[in-house]
Amino acid sequence: GAGVSQTPSNKVTEKGKYVELRCDPISGHTALYWYRQSLGQGPEFLIYFQGTGAADDSGLPNDRFFAVRPEGSVSTLKIQRTERGDSAVYLCASSLIRQKNTEAFFGQGTRLTVV
Amino acid sequence: AQTVTQSQPEMSVQEAETVTLSCTYDTSENNYYLFWYKQPPSRQMILVIRQEAYKQQNATENRFSVNFQKAAKSFSLKISDSQLGDTAMYFCAFRAQGGSEKLVFGKGTKLTVNP
Questions:
Q1: What is the dihedral of CA B82, B4, B34, A85, to 10 degrees?
Q2: Are A41 and B91 a contacting pair at CB < 8 A?
C-alpha cells in the first residue's frame, strides 16, 4: 500500500479480554516498530522487527504483551488480560533496511480503550 | 539511556509570525540523529525535519529550520510564516546510530496558530 496501515482504528475492550492490533507496513520495508502513546505523552518504544525476528523487545512492559511478524510483512501486537492502564494509542512504523539517515513512516495508530 | 525533554507543553503564535519550539536531550552517544515530528489530530506522525549529529550545518526545510547546538545538547525548531495548518503536537525525537535505531521521543509541545 501507499502508507503504513493499522487496523482497527479504534478498539474498545473489557478489562481482562485479549486484543490483537494489526500493522501493514509499506511494501518492501524490512524494519517495523511498535510504539505506545499514552495520553499527554510522546510515543514510547515497544518492539522492533528486522524481517521476521524481533531484534529488540526491550520496550514491552510485561509478558502480557507479545508481537509477531511471521512472514516479514504484516505484524500483530497481542495483549492478553488487558488492564485499564493499557489504554493508549498504539503506533506502528516501518522503514527500509537500516541505512544512513533512513526515515520511519508511521501509521495512524490504533486507539485502545480498556473499560 | 537517552532522554529527550521538551519544556514547553503549549505554545501559540499568530498566523504569519515566527515561533521557536525548544528541545534538549541527553546522551553519551557520539553518532545520532535528531528529528522533529508533527502529529495532527489524525494521530499520524509526520516527519518535519531531521539533523545528523555529525553535520554542523543546521537543517532547513522550507519554513522549518533547526538550531542544533551539539555541545549544549539542544535542538530547537523554528517555524517561519506560521500557517493555520501548522497547528498540531510537535515531538522532538532522538535516534542513536546502530542497534535497533528506535526513536526516543519527548513529551511534545502543543502548537496553536491563531488567525
A1: -90
A2: no
What tens digit of pLDDT does each residue of A85-96 get? 999 999 999 998
Task: Chain A: give the shortest CA distance to residue B22, in Å.
Answer: 15
> B78 vs A74, A78, B42, B115, CA distance in Å?
37, 39, 23, 19
Contact A44 B52 (CB under 8 A): no
Ordered structural domains, chain A, with CATH: 5-104 (2.60.40.10)
Domains and CATH numbers, chain B: 3-114 (2.60.40.10)
CB contact under 8 A, A109 and B43: yes
- pLDDT bracket for residue B106 (50, 70, 90): very high
Q: What share of chain A is helix, strand, coil (3-state, %, to 5)?
A: 5, 50, 50
Q: Cβ contacts (< 8 Å) between A111 and chain B: which residues?
A: 43
Closest CA of chain A from B94, distance in Å? 12
